[in-house]
Each structure stands twice: as structure tokens, then as C-alpha cells.
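Run log, item B.
One chain of 270 residues. Sequence copied directly from the ordering sheet:
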Amino acid sequence: MINRITEQPSHHDDLEKKSTRDLLIGINAEDKTVPIAVEKSIPQIESLIDKVVSQLLNGGRLFYIGAGTSGRLGVIDASECPPTYGVPSDLVIGIIAGGDMAIRKSIEHAEDDPRQAWQDLKTYHISEKDFVIGIAASGTTPYVVYGLEDCRHNNVPTGCITCNTNTPLEANADYPIVAVVGPEFVTGSTRMKSGTAQKLILNMISTSVMIRLGKVKGNRMVDMQLTNVKLKDRAAKMVVQKLNLDYEDAVSLLQKYGSVRAVLDNYDNR
């Protein structure tokens, strides 16, 4: 029997008797501990990122697999990579137990199928070039645990993000990340501190990977897709700042070349 820290009783009790202000103060106090837990995991995160970068540079892809909140967080992170960094939609892929319907509606039984993750991965023709990160706060979700086990049997390198120690998920990951955030404000509600830790770590992974792949210049997202007014304005301001042009000229160049990077490359080579 695994003693899951995420299931231990909250440090706060009689929640139903507390005022709204006291509830907010308590939740905030617990949330403040999460970045400290994540900071302790930086060496593990670093090792995983270095391996992911190596895989992607050799033609591989990054997959996230998870169930419930963990799966949704992986899908969100993956879906934000193309518009933010201009990468193909199949470079970072989020898979959730139960399929896309589970993004909006809870399909709890889906996480208990030990063989479905591998079936889901096989639809993408998963290979040794790829990298799979299993996300599960508990570290025991069958969909995720056995998904990584199947990856290992097929020589696909793996990592994980969990909030409990000495779990089957950690044991099946080549590059485990364990962020121990402690008991939740509401006992067992891992969408709270555990979910926050997972989101922070996913931010660190995808952002660092994209920077290492050359998708950022200085501190700017030079390959972002110009798909709405906000992003077009941001891009124009980048060009104005970088090339000391009028705003209207920057807009014209972006319309001509399609991205901040293309503008900068072509302007420098004139």
C-alpha cells in the first residue's frame, strides 16, 4: 500500500465554518508552498528537458499522457505550443484518458484501463525517437503507469510528473520529476496544489524546450503565429523595437514575410 502524501488530511479543518476571507487566506497560504516544492525538483526537470531537446532535434516528438486534471493540463500545454512558438501541431501532443470528450466532461473510469494509453500512442506511430511524459499527481493512475511501462518495453524514453514519492509511475519513468507539495487544502483535491505544481513544471518544460530549439530570440517569441489582433500588434511592436521602424512599416513587413523572425532575417540580409 502506497502512502500517498496527496491523500493525507488537510492542515485545515472545519472549512464549512470559515468565512470567505479565511478560506481565501488558507488556500493562498497553501499555494505559496508550491513553487518551493517545484524548486527542489529543478535538477530532475533539467535532466528531462535535456533529453527531450535531444529527442526533438533528432526528429522526435513530445507526448503528454494523463487522466482527469493531469491529462487536461498536458493537453493545454501541448495545444499552446503551435500558436506561441510556431511549431507544427504534431510536435507536442497531449493525450487524455477517455479522449477529447474527457477534456470537458469527467470520464473517471477511463483512467483505470491499463492498456489504453499504449493504444492511444500507437495511433500516432510512436517510436524510439519520441519522448513520453506521464502526468499523474497520485503516481498510481493505471492509464499513465502502464502507458510508461509499455513505452519502456518498446524502447521509448519516458519521464513523469507526480506529487508522491516511491510510486509505480516514478519507477517506470526514465526521467522522473517528483514535486512533493503536501496535503491539499481540501483533502485529496489534487486539482489544487498538485495541479498547480504540474502546471508550473509543464510551463518550465515546454518553454525551456522551445528556447533550446531556437524559437525565442532575446526574450521574444519570434515564431509565434499571427492569428489575432493582439498577436499581430505584439509582433509589430517587436519589429518596431528591434529595427527602430515606424509601426506602419513594421505592419507592412509582417504582412509581407509572415513572422517576426522572417522580418528580422530578411531585414538583416538586405
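Observations after the first pass:
- The two ends are 67 Å apart (CA to CA).
- Residues 63 and 132 are 5 Å apart (CA to CA).
Flagged for discussion on Thursday.
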